Amino acid sequence: MIWIRILLLLLMFMPAGVWAKDKKIAPSVPIGEGVKVVIAEGKAVLGDDTTPAQAKAIAMNNARRNALEEAVGVNLHSSTLVYNSQLISDLISTATKGLIIAQKVIDEKCYTEGGSIYCSAKIEAQVKPLALEKGKKISIVKASVQRPDRDSTANSPVFQDGDEIQIKVMANEDSFMNIFSVDQYGNVVKLFPNDYVKAAILPSRKEFVFPDNNIRERGLKFRVAAPKNLSKAVESVLIIATKEEGDFLSDKTLQNPTISDLMKELSGLDQSSWDEETVGYEVRK
Question: Considering only CA atoms, which of 90, 84, 38 is closest in space to residue 62?
Answer without folding.
Answer: 90
